[in-house]
Design goal:
The protein has 213 residues and is of the alpha/beta class. Helix content is 50%, strand content 14%.
């Protein structure tokens, strides 16, 4: 039985999807929550094989991709399918970079949802037509080794990030204000076109800027 957790801030939508999925003999909805933070808390005491994660979860809340990244770090056995009403290339790119295995628009018909859940459960990737096009553009684009220059502070910060340090630890280590470190990190993300610390370090190594011992 494939256990599914739904994370969406529209309760009517969650209820409708739950009812449809529960009609399947091999799928059961084990929970519904309306915030990314709630999904993270839910997983501390319960388990799911697949999470259907809406990207936009309301104002002043952790968005779905932030929640997905946190969950991917601590629950490797749980796969995530991202849901959205919006067609945004950068969201797809970020989702793929953090290990999201599925991407659906809410307009996809039910058979697509069922195929996505079953394929991702088997360890495959399932992308809707729009997300496939984004992935194909990424694969066609040649990697250009950029000449990227870093300030001494940026160099220190990226080295500490590569060692797994959190922002507050880096601030303490370098005797900088936390907000200053966050600004430097944001500048580094922009320079390398990265969305996460993992991809930042990867691109820095690939560009020859950073060497990891």
């Amino acid at each position: 039985m494939i256990r599914v957790l739904i994370v969406d801030d529209h309760q009517d939508f969650s209820l409708a999807i739950s009812q449809m999925l529960n009609l399947e003999t091999d799928i059961t909805v084990v929970g519904t929550v309306n915030r990314g933070e709630d999904a993270i808390q839910w997983l501390k005491t319960q388990t799911a094989d697949i999470i259907l994660m809406d990207i936009r979860l309301g104002k002043n809340r952790m968005d779905g991709l932030e929640a997905a990244e946190t969950i991917r770090h601590s629950h490797l056995q749980t796969e995530i399918i991202v849901l959205t009403n919006y067609r945004d290339d950068r969201q797809v790119e970020k989702g793929l970079s953090i290990g999201v295995k599925g991407y659906l628009t809410k307009q996809n018909p039910l058979p697509d949802w069922l195929n996505a859940i079953r394929n991702v459960y088997k360890g495959k990737t399932y992308l809707c037509a729009f997300a496939q096009k984004v992935q194909q553009r990424q694969m066609r684009a040649p990697f250009l080794k950029k000449k990227i220059s870093l300030t001494p502070t940026e160099t220190q910060i990226i080295k500490l990030i590569s060692k797994g340090m959190e922002m507050d630890q880096i601030a303490k280590n370098l005797n900088h204000r936390l907000e200053t470190v966050k600004i430097h990190r944001r500048n580094l993300m922009h320079k390398f076109g990265a969305f996460t610390d993992m991809t930042l370090v990867h691109e820095a190594v690939r560009s020859g800027v950073l060497r990891v011992d």
